[in-house]
Records
---
Amino acid sequence: MTVISARGVVVTLDGNRILTGVDASAGAGEWLAVIGPNGAGKSTLLRTLAGVLRHEGEVTVDGAPLGGMSPRERARRIAYAPQQPVLPSEVAVFDYVLLGRTPHLGYLAREGRHDRDVTRDVLRRLDLTGLAGRRMGALSGGEAQRVLIARALAQEAAVLLLDEPTTALDLGHQQQVLELIDGLRRDDGLTVISTLHDLTLAGQYADRLLLLVDGRTVAEGPPARVLEAATIARHYGARVRVETDPDGRPQVRLVRPGG
Ligand code: ADP
Ligand code: MG
C-alpha cells in the first residue's frame, strides 16, 4: 500500500523552476533514498513532501491530500528532519525532543507521563541520555543532528522524512542512526524517505533509489540498477568503481583518474 505519494511536483522558488514534474512514492515499511548531485533539488523535494513548501502537483498521505490538512494533522502523519534546521539555543535537549510530542497533545494540554517516556526512550536509543539537560546551543554538530532525529522519532508519525541525516555523524553514530531507522521500518512499518549523499550508504539501506538531477528524475529503482558506474559518471562527473556485496548491494568507490 502506498503511504505517501507525490505526483507531478513542480516547485518554483524566486522565479526559478527547481523541481519540474517529479513523482515519488513509498509504501509502509519501505525506504526510498533520494540521491543526486548538489543542487539537484533533493531538499526541495523533501520539503514539498513535508508540506512546508508551495508547489504544483499533489502530495497525498494514505490517499488524503496534504494540502487539505492542518499543520497538526500533518505532523501526526509526517515527521521531518530538515537539512538546515533552526535550533533554539537556550532550550534543553530533553525539552526540544519533547516538542516532537506536540501534535499528539490535546488543545492547551501539557505533556504527560507517556510523552516523557517516549522522549526518554528515543534519547536512550540515540545515545543522548547523558545530554538530556544540555542546552541546544552547547551541542556539537553531530550531537545536534542526532537530537534533531530524536525529535522526529518522538513524533511517532508513520512517515519519516530525513534530509541528509548522517552528514555530521561519525561512523559509529551513522551506523547507529541508520540501523535504528531500519529497525523501526521493519518492526513498526515506518515509511522512510531520506536523502543521503553517500551513495554506498543509500544503496545499503534503501529499497529503492530516486536519482534527481536538475529537478527531474533521471533514474529510479533498486540500488543495483541505479548505482551503475556509467550513470554516476554522467550525472556526478565522478569516476567510480562499483562493486557488489554478497547480498547484491552496490559499493561505490571513487577511483583516481589514471588509477
Ligand atoms: P539539494 O538538496 O539537492 O542539494 P536543494 O533542493 O537544496 O538541492 O536546491 C535545489 C536548487 O534550488 C539549488 O540550485 C538551490 O540553489 C536552489 N534554491 C534553493 N532555494 C532557493 C530559493 N529560495 N530561491 C532560488 N533558488 C533556490
Ligand atoms: Mg539538500
---
Amino acid sequence: MQTIKHILIILFFMSYSNKVKAFVWLQQDIEQQVDSLMQKMNLEEKIGQTVLYSSGMDITGPVLDKAYKDHIKAGQVGAIFNATGAAYTRKLQKLAVEETRLGIPMLFGYDVIHGHKTIFPIPLAESCSWDLELAEKSARISAIEAAADGLHWTFSPMVDISRDARWGRVSEGAGEDVYLASLIARAKVIGYQGDLKQNNTILSCAKHFAAYGAPQAGRDYHTVDMSEIRLRNTFLPPFKAALDAGAASFMTAFNELNGVPATGNPFLLDEILRKEWGFRGFVVTDYTSINEMTHHGYAAELKHAGELAMNAGVDMDMQGGVYKNHLLQSIQEGKVSEARLDEAVRAILRMKFKLGLFEDPYRYCNEETAPNILMAPEHMEFARELAQRSIVLLKNHQEVLPLAKQQKIALIGPMATDEVHILGSWAAQGDRAGKAVSLKEGMEVHGLRFAYAQGCEILKDYRVGFEQAIALAKDSDVVVMAMGEAEYMSGEAASRTNIQLPAVQRELIAEIKKTGKPIVLVLYNGRPLDLTWENQTVDAILEAWFPGTNGGLAVADILVGEYNPSAKLTLSFPRNIGQIPIFYNQKNTGRPADAEGAHPRYSSKYIDADNSPLFAFGYGLSYTKFIYENIALSHDKLGPNNSISISVEVTNIGDRAGEEIVQLYIRDMVGSITRPVKELKGFQKITLQKGERQTIRFTIEANDLKFYNKDLEFVVEEGDFLIGIGGSSEVAMKHSFTYSNK
Ligand code: NOJ
C-alpha cells in the first residue's frame, strides 16, 4: 500500500513539474517572440502599439473615423475600443493584419462592466450577494459573450473603494470594505481571464489606479489628498488582489493624488505597481487623461504631459492622441528613452501573444457562433439568479412581505414597466426594451392579481397621474411602489448633492400613504439613498438596485417569496447626506459618543442626527430569522505560528429555509497608528432549513491582522484584539484574544 502511495506521489510530481516546465517554456517562448518582433519594428510602429482609439456609432452601427483607419493602415494603432460585433472587428482587424508592414493584430477593448448583452445587476448590487462564486461566474459569462462579439479586453473590474454615496460611481464598485472588495476583485479577474488560452477568455483591467473613489466632496474627477498609510490600508489592497489574480492591465485614474495626477504619477505606477508589486501587464490611461494633465496644472502642453505619463509608467494612451502626435519627438529629444518605450510595447505585445492573436488574429471574430452565445437562455437564467441574490430587504414591518397570491395588488410607479433604467449605467451593449424583463412582466409570470398605474415619472414634476394611482391604491389590499433613480443618475459624471428620491416620487408616496394601505417600496438605484423619511412612511423596502436584464423576474420572485432574500449591504446608507462619508470601519476618536460616561455634549457626534447609519454595512433582512449563540475561541493567545479557531452556532428560528451571511469582525485595540473600531476578517454564506442549527468555524492567523503601521511596514502588532460575529457590522465585540510575537 505504502509503495503504491509513493509511486502515485512521484507520478503526481512528474506531471506537475512537466506542467511547470511547459508553463515556463511558454513564457520564455512568448518573450522570445516579443523580442524578435520588436527587432523588426521601427520607432513609429512601436509608438503605434501604445495608441488606443475609440470607434464611434451611427444609426447603421459602429463606424470608425477615416483618419483612424489611415492610422491603422500605417501601423500606428495598437488597439481600438467601442468597436463590437464579430463582423465589424474582423473588418478592422483585417486593416491591421493585411494592410500593414508587420501585420500586428490589434486589441479590441470595451466597457463590459456587468455583462455584455445579458446584463447582470450593477457591481454594487452584485457585491451585496457576498457570493464570490457568482461574482466569478458573471465575469465568466460576460467574457464568453464579449469574446463572441469580437472583444479581447474589458475595462473591468473597477476596484475603487468608496465611502461616499454622493459619488455616482459607487454603483460600479464593490462597496466600502477592503476585505470583501479585494476578494471580489480577485473573483472578477479570474472569471474574465481564466487561463487566457481559450478564445472565450478576455483580458481584465483593474481600474482606476488609484484612489479615484475618494474624490473631494464626492464630485467626480475631483482632487484626492490622503496619507500613504490610508492609501495602503484602504485603497490599494483590492488592486493588489486583482494583480495577484493575474490582472493583465491596469487603468490610471482621472484624479490627482497628493498633487500629482495619477496618470503622471511615478510613485503609483513605477514605485508601487511595477517595482514593489512586480506588475508585468500594461497600463492604459483613462479617457484622454494624459491630455487632462494640462488642466490639472501639471503640464504646460501636451508633449510634456505625454513625457510625464510615459516616464511614470503609462504604456497606452486612451483616445488622447498624445503619444501618437508627440512621443517620437520626445524620444528624439531624449526626454523619453527608447528603452522605456520598448518596455511599454513589450508589455502590450506580450498580452497579444498570450491571447493567441499572432496565431489567429480572427480567433475572436466568429460571426456564426455569436448569435447562439449572446443572451443564451442559461445566461439569462443566471442573470435572474444573481439578481435574486443581490436584492436587499431593508424593512419588512409586520411581515407585509412576501405577498400572498390572493391579495389584490396596486402596482404603482415609473419603474414598474421600465425596461431601460433597470439595466443600470455601463450597459452599452445590453438589449433594453423587448429583451429586459420589467417588474410588471415579472408579476404577470407569477400570476399575481394586480392592476397598474404609473402615477408619476422619474423626475418630471407632473402630478397628472396621481389621481389614478390613488384610486387604484384605495381599491387594493397592498400597494407595490416601484420608484428610484434614472440610470443616468448614477455612474460616471453623476455625482449628487441630494441623495433622496426625486421630490415628485416622494409626494406620490405621501399621497398613497393617506389611503392607509400597506406600502411595499421597491427601489431601483445605483447608490445608497437617504431613506429616512421612506423608512418612517412605508411598510417594506426592497432595495433592488439596477438588477439587469432579468431584474423584473427576480424582484417578483422575492415579492412572492419564491426566493427568500439573502443579500446584505456593502455600502452604508446614511440617515442624511450630512453624515457622508459614513462607513462601519471608522476610527474611534478621543471622545467616542458611545463610551461609558461620554459627555452629553462634548463627544464626537452631531447635535441633529445620530452617528449610526440608517442601514449599516452587512445589514439585510430575510423572511426568516437567524440567531447567533455560543461564540467560542479555541485559544485566547495567538502567535506567529499558531491559529485560533472561532466557532459560532447559528440557528434558523423562523418558519422557512433561508440563506445567511455570517460575518466575523475584529478590532485591534491599540496600535502604532490608531485602528478602526472593527474590520471584516471573514464571512460565510450558509443555507439553513427551518429550525436547523449549524456550527460555523473561522480561523484567524497572524497574517489576518496585518496592516501598514506608522513606519509603513505591513505587520501585525502585539496586543489585544476583540471579536464579534453576527449578521451585520452592528455586532457586539465581546470576545477577545491577545497576539504576541513570542
Ligand atoms: C472613462 C471611465 O472613467 C472608464 O472607467 C472607462 O473604462 C473609460 N471611460 C472608457 O470608456
---
Amino acid sequence: MKHFLSALDVPDVTALADSAAAFKAAPRSAETLGRGKRIGCLFLNPSLRTRLSTQVAAQQLGMEAIVFNVGAEGWALEFAEGAVMNGTTVEHVKDAAPILGQYFDILAIRTFPGLKDRAEDYSERYISQFVKYAGVPVVSLESATLHPLQSLADLLTIRETFAGGRRPKVVLSWAPHVKPLPQCVANSFAQWMTVWGGADFVVTHPEGYTLDPQYTKGASITHNQDEAFEGADYIYVKNWSSYEQYGQILSNDTDWMLTLDKLKATNNGKVMHCLPVRRNVELSDEVLDSAHSLVTQQAGNRVWAAQAVLADILKSNA
Ligand code: CP
C-alpha cells in the first residue's frame, strides 16, 4: 500500500483487519519496523482519538511521531491552482508539501470539508494536493469525504465481537445532531462494509439524507428505522448532513435518536459510534451506559487500526 486514503487503496481489507487484531494481541511485535522513520501528523481540524491513537501506534512501531496543528498554528494554506495569493492564504500547498516530504517518511493529514460546495469537497482537493506534492506516503486522518482509519477500527470491532457463525446484520442509522456534520464517517463505514462483504448491510435515514451512491452500492437502504433494526446484530449510529441538499440539516426529528426501547427489535444489538457523541441527542445515556455499547472498545481499536496501516506502508515502501 502506497497511500491510505480509502478502502480502495487496500488490497485486502480482511487481511488488514487481521493485522490490526495481531497488533492488538502483541502491540510491540514490530517495534523496530519504524526505527529511524518519522511520521508527521498534520491537523487542519480538531481531534482527540485520531491524534493520540496515531501517535501511540507510530511509537509502538519504533517511529517518531510529530504532531502539527497546522489549522490553528500554521500558515494559512492555499490549495487553488494558479491562485493570486493576495487574500488571507499565506503559503501554497505546492510549496509546503514538498518540504514536509523532506521532513517526514509518512505524512498523515486531517482535513474536513467546508460543506458549502459539494463538488469541491468530493474532489478531495486538499488531501490530493498533499499526495501530489509531498512525494511520500500519505495517510488520511479523515478527509473531506472519508475516514478510513475509523472504518478499519470499526471492522476490527465487528469481527472480534461477532460469534454468530453466520453473516451479521449491520445497520448504519442516521441520528439527529445540532450542527451540520460531514458525511465522512457514514460514507467510509458504508464503503468498508461493502468492500469487506462479510455482513448484511443496511443503511437507514430520513428522506433527504441519501449518501453518495458510490459508497452504498450493494447496501439495503430504507427510511423505516424500525424495520431496519429488526434482528440487527450491530447498530452504527451517526449523524450526517444532507448530501443531496449539500451540507444542510433537513431534519432534527428526535424519534431517530437510539434508545433502549428501539433496541428491543434487534438481536441483542451492539451499538457503535465513532465519537465524539452528543449524549441524549444522537444516543441516549441509557444506551451509551449499557452493555449494548461498544464505543470504548471501538475507540480503543483505533490504535491497532493505525498500527496495521503504518506497518503495511512501512513494509511496502521499504
Ligand atoms: N472518531 C474520531 O475520529 O475521533 P476524533 O475526532 O477525536 O479524532
